[in-house]
Design goal:
heterodimer, A: 354 residues, B: 297 residues, mainly alpha, 4 strands
Chain lengths: 354, 297
């Protein structure tokens, strides 16, 4: 058996990882600071989009809470990674027992992701019983609750004020490596027993329940995994941006991440990756236009919101003409005949556009 | 603490929230769409008030009427352009669309007008009070109560005694069946969006009379209130929306009085925890409708 045949079951993540590595190498070689910045943020966004895809794509339920867990990840990681001196400088109101905590970046990141996952596990178990509008409103409620707590719990988060003085640990390569791991993890989750059962509940909840699938448990596990990934994304983002406030983790960011996933196609990992690439590119072009017009001072009151207006229009147009996104639920695959060997579900269940 | 002033304020707040919730529920009942763009209709109404009151010589009553009309036409327009084409696709597509429309309107206001808050010129009556039984009651609150009473009576008459109203109620119960009986879907849905827009327009007048400024992000707080109120009252029932609006007003006013100052700023978080609890134990809300499948386990 040759190598290509052995790797065939992993053709999708390998292709996606190849694309990500190619982009990263190209950026690294070019060495343009602005480009490096954009690409790094893009990889962090990609992790967030993949995390959302993990839940939304497999369960078919829209979740607004995701960015809240990103915020939890960001604030938790910062509490561990900052030096005691920096913490006292930025937030004099901090609980005294939090000040001496100081860990290297990687453990901080993992703790942050774990905290996000634990909070998600506690908050969400009862919510997983809800479907449709009730599910959406409750995840929205979770986002609002997390936001209110982040804004007002100033003994941990510095309140609505900007938290500054975070060390810049996230580089192009840390974000690329995290991205590669996330792509494999999310893909393997989708193809795992849990992922397959969850997708079955998405395609037909009653049929899935009748063959003994525990819908609530499957959704819960996916939600926790999704919050973990969001926590990682938040921690990486925090150590790249280095100063932020709770308003970074609210509706604007939710819209961007959701637009990336929906434009790419929420029910496949490839869709998440392609959506992130396209939306990032489009946003950067639009933002450049917006800035250029602002510099020219054509409009006396400034020229704000142009990027979001165009993105919203594109999103609505995509939803009208291709509601399953660019990938339409398919994964990128290598050409050729598929071997009929385990794992059993070689052909992904076609997204029935729930 | 709980005196006549508190009671009148709470009733006034409750009637405002009831109107707010009605506008959201009337669309949800028929389309199962939680309209995230609903808050932005209030913002649109607010900017109409600001522009006309600052730059036109029109009398205030006329301006208020125009604000309601503009909110209504914006609502109809979003339905025609964005919601109608995705209506048949999926619930998620519709929700994301409404989120996109909300972002679009909000940033449109940012782009066209300004990110800065604008002061709205209000007529004298919104700043004066009247003495009732020894307490001073702002006219604003009395007007809110009266307007919502009139709207409730008009809406009840519409729903009970007109063909359109009966079609609206039938569509909320079983849309497919209603369509098979020859009621055009587009007319019913447009009517629901029009009513929703009118409610948003009226709410915008009273909402803005409280702060006297308008910003592009104005729509978010009323939207959150409407969410909570509808979830409390029942997403499928118009009576539930009114009840939910009043329950919200009572709970939030009581929390304001009873919570210790340190926790007061978390009031909103408490409200949303309350929502989650209600959805868990009574996903159909306080007032339920006959058919409802929101829960799987």
């Amino acid at each position: 058996m040759n190598l290509a045949a052995r790797l065939k079951p992993f053709d999708t993540p390998l292709t996606l990882v190849g694309a990500v590595l190619f982009l990263a190498l190209l950026t690294g070689l070019l060495g343009i600071p602005l480009l490096t910045r954009i690409v790094t943020v893009m990889f962090v966004s990609l992790i967030l989009v993949l995390g959302l895809q993990l839940y939304m794509g497999n369960s078919g339920i829209l979740s607004f809470a995701h960015i809240g867990f990103m915020g939890i990840g960001a604030y938790t990681s910062v509490l561990f990674s900052m030096t005691p001196a920096a913490k006292e400088l930025t937030n004099s109101n901090l609980y005294p027992f939090l000040i001496p905590l100081h860990l290297p970046f990687l453990p901080s990141l993992l703790i942050a992701a774990l905290v996000a996952a634990i909070i998600a596990a506690v908050l969400s178990y009862p919510l997983m019983r809800l479907s449709d509008a009730a599910a959406v409103i409750t995840t929205f409620a979770v986002l609002v609750i997390i936001h209110v707590v982040l804004v007002h719990w100033d003994r941990v988060t510095n309140g609505p004020r900007t938290l500054f003085g975070v060390d810049s640990y996230t580089t192009l390569w840390t974000s690329v490596i995290s991205c590669v791991i996330t792509i494999f993890a999310v893909y393997l989750f989708k193809e795992s027993r849990i992922g397959l059962r969850l997708r079955a509940t998405r395609d037909d909840a009653y049929a899935a329940a009748s063959i003994g699938i525990n819908i609530v448990l499957m959704r819960w596990l996916a939600f926790i995994a999704s919050a973990f990934v969001a926590g990682v994304g938040g921690a990486l983002w925090a150590h790249f941006i280095t100063s932020f406030s709770p308003y970074s983790f609210y509706l604007t960011e939710t819209f961007v991440i959701l637009a990336m996933l929906v434009i790419g196609g929420p029910s496949s990992v490839s869709g998440a990756v392609i959506g992130t690439l396209i939306v990032t590119a489009a946003r950067e072009v639009l933002r450049a236009i917006e800035n250029y017009i602002n510099i020219l001072q054509i409009f006396p009151g400034g020229f704000f919101g142009f990027t979001e207006v165009i993105m919203a229009i594109v999103l609505v147009v995509i939803l009208i003409y291709r509601p399953t996104g660019i990938m339409g639920g398919r994964e990128l695959r290598w050409p050729g005949r598929r071997r009929l060997s385990p794992p059993v579900e070689q052909e992904p269940v076609r997204n029935r556009n729930v | 603490m709980i005196n006549l002033e508190f009671i009148i304020n709470t009733i006034s707040l409750g009637s405002l929230y009831a109107m707010l919730a009605l506008g959201l529920v009337i669309i949800y009942g028929i389309l199962r769409l939680v309209n995230f763009a609903y808050g932005e209709l209030i913002m649109v109404g607010g900017y109409t008030l600001y522009l006309l009151a600052s730059f036109s010589p029109l009398p205030w009553l006329f301006i208020a009427l125009l604000a309601v009309l503009v909110a209504m036409f914006t609502s109809l327009f979003t339905e025609l352009v964005a919601f109608r084409p995705v209506r048949e696709k999926s619930l998620t597509a519709m929700l994301v669309t409404s989120f996109a429309v909300s972002t679009l309107l909000q940033n449109g206001a940012l782009l066209i007008i300004s990110p800065r808050a604008r002061a709205v010129v209000l007529p004298q009556i919104f700043q004066t009070s009247v003495m009732i039984a020894g307490t001073s009651v702002p006219w604003r609150n009395i007007l809110t109560i009266l307007t919502s009473l009139v709207m409730l009576v008009l809406l009840t008459l519409l729903l009970r005694h007109t063909v359109l109203g009966i079609a609206l109620r039938a569509a909320a119960d079983n849309f497919t069946m209603t369509r098979m009986l020859g009621v055009p879907a587009n007319t019913v849905i447009s009517a629901a969006f029009a009513i929703s827009g009118i409610m948003a327009g009226l709410v915008s007048i009273f909402w803005i009379s409280r702060s006297a400024t308008v910003t592009p992000a104005l729509g978010a707080p009323p939207l959150l209130v409407a969410f909570v109120a509808t979830v409390i009252g029942g997403m499928r029932s118009l009576t539930g929306a009114v009840v939910g609006g009043f329950v919200y007003a009572i709970v939030i006013s009581l929390l304001g009085v009873l919570l210790p100052p340190g926790l007061l700023e978390f009031r909103e978080a408490f409200m949303f925890v309350f929502v989650i609890i209600i959805l868990l134990f009574r996903p159909q809300g306080l007032i339920s409708s006959k058919t409802s499948v929101e829960r799987v386990g």
